[in-house]
Task: inverse folding
């Protein structure tokens, strides 16, 4: 008898149904299109999807006619057991100009553009398919408790995301979803032209895992507002782990193109990527109360702060965050990086802890931003999900960290213990990282773009034949390139605290290139400590670690990496002695 009540108020769909049925629980429809047709002709606004795979041959589109409807898993079925499989379709489920629509508890998989997309207002010419056309405002839509996975988005993936809103989409709520295993962006919110409005957007409680694996200049959670006019945007209580390769300029949270009036709070940002947070041109943004784990390479900075087309950046805050690491030595060039003649953000009362050596970077080295009141203390954080002890110092003033809400993803979802482990589980391997672009002296090589040493050139004793590459506005990967026979980079007064047995280099080398890297002591033609024969990786953007033996006793050394073997031997990210 209870089922009859459900059927009276809802339309039911099942992969085992038949579109000639009446859409009740006992006689469900087979297709989403048949359910959509039915609710458009009636007062019913609830559609239940039963367990099974709904193989999509074209996108399923909801419009203004479907406003107020809900599409969700049947209440007694396991959450996420209704699966919309796109088999590589551009888009799988789209809301185009509809409002007050809820999509809940589904699994969306195998897309090449957008898993779930919402678009309202003016079309954007470059956003084909579908989002390049004009539609009514799409307001108050809710994307909740879904799993969106297996996106195969072509690089660079701009304007594409697993969950994607664009245009005039105020009060969109993206809540407790799992986004995982995609080559493209995770969650993207775009306002690209005059009249667009993303005010009231809430991105909360999502688990965003292993995204941006082939994207460039993107993010796991991406907010873009070229109007700079949207208000009350919130990115809170999300768990982001592993958001792409370092050299592809990828971020956990990216506030792009004047995105303003955004609060980023209560999130955990961890794993591999270029940097956890980038604010690009916006004002009135607050980043507070987040756990940010930069890992064990010593490479990513915590916050990248960059001007966009000379617009002032005012009233931005980065405060009360917990910054974790496990690097043996930090040569990143600064915890905070600034590009452009802009007002510094307010950076203070962040707590820093290094699980490896205790060495932390609180800013001010090269990029003119530093934490004005940094704190250091053991935060008492443990496990893959960053459990914080009740007695942790992070809860005390002035950091005044607020307990995390947690409960990421749909009901019952457990974060996998996979991907990059937290720093609290990486207690250090006594390795010493020497990042190529942070060398003290060099000869012949090209230091592309944002290498920290260029920003503090008065402290450098020797430059010879330096090529600055694309300049500071391009945000290229930090590495040295154009390494030819006889070129070298040098590091002065390097402290080796533990016996070094292995010399490892992270490098990229084109097919057919060949050469060696010789590690020398005291001067470029000094005593040879190690010789690494380079194996081509296939291109100058495909990086991997390659290793040779070395024997370095504890002590303080001037170390030189000398390149030999012809033209364009490779690009070099870091050298590691361990």
Result:
């Amino acid at each position: 008898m209870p089922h009859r009540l459900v059927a009276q108020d809802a339309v039911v769909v099942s992969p085992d149904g038949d579109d000639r049925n009446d859409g009740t629980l006992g006689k469900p429809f087979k297709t989403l299109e048949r359910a959509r047709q039915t609710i458009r002709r009636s007062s019913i606004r609830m559609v239940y999807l039963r367990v099974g795979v709904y193989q999509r041959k074209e996108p399923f589109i909801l419009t203004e006619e479907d406003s107020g409807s809900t599409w969700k898993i049947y209440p007694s079925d396991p959450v996420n057991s209704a699966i919309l499989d796109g088999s590589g379709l551009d888009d799988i489920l789209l809301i185009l100009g509809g409002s007050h629509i809820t999509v809940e508890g589904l699994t969306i998989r195998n897309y090449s553009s957008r898993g779930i997309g919402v678009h309202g207002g003016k079309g954007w010419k470059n956003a084909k398919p579908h989002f390049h056309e004009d539609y009514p405002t799409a307001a108050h839509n809710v994307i909740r408790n879904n799993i969106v996975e297996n996106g195969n988005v072509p690089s660079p993936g701009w304007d594409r995301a697993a969950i994607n809103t664009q245009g005039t989409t105020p009060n969109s709520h993206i809540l407790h979803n799992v986004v995982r295993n995609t080559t493209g962006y995770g969650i993207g919110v775009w306002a690209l032209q005059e009249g667009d409005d993303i005010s009231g957007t809430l991105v909360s409680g999502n688990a965003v895992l292993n995204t941006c694996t082939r994207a460039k200049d993107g993010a796991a959670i991406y907010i873009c507002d070229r109007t700079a006019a949207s208000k009350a945007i919130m990115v809170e209580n999300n768990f982001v782990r592993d958001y792409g390769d370092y050299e592809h300029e990828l971020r956990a949270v990216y506030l792009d193109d004047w995105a303003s009036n955004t609060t980023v709070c209560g999130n955990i940002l961890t794993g591999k990527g270029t940097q956890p947070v980038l604010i690009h041109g916006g004002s009135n943004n607050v980043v507070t109360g987040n756990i940010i784990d930069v890992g064990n390479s010593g490479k990513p900075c915590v916050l990248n702060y960059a001007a966009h087309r000379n617009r002032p950046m005012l009233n931005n805050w980065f405060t009360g965050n917990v910054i974790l690491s496990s690097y043996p030595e930090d040569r990143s060039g600064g915890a905070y990086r600034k590009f452009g003649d802009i007002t510094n953000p307010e950076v203070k009362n962040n707590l820093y802890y290094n699980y490896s050596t205790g060495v932390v970077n609180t800013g001010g080295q090269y990029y003119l931003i530093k934490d004005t009141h940094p704190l250091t203390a053991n935060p008492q954080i443990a496990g893959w999900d960053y459990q914080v002890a009740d007695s942790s110092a992070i809860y005390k003033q002035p950091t005044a960290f607020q307990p995390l809400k947690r409960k990421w993803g749909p009901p019952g979802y457990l974060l996998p213990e996979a991907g990059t482990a937290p720093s609290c589980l990486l207690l250090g391997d006594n390795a010493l990282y020497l990042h190529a672009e942070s060398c003290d002296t060099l000869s012949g090589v090209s230091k592309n773009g944002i290498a920290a040493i260029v920003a503090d050139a008065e402290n450098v004793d020797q430059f010879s034949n330096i090529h600055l590459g694309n300049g500071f506005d391009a945000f290229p990967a930090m590495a040295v390139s154009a390494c030819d026979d006889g070129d070298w980079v040098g590091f002065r007064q390097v402290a080796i605290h533990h016996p070094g047995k292995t010399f490892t280099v992270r490098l990229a080398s084109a097919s057919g290139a060949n050469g060696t890297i010789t590690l020398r002591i005291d001067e470029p033609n000094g005593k040879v400590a190690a010789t690494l024969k380079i194996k081509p990786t296939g291109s100058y953007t495909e990086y991997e670690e390659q290793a040779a033996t070395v024997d370095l006793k504890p002590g303080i050394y001037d170390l030189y990496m000398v390149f030999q073997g012809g033209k364009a031997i490779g690009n070099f990210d870091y050298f590691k002695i361990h």
In short: The longest strand covers residues 82-96.
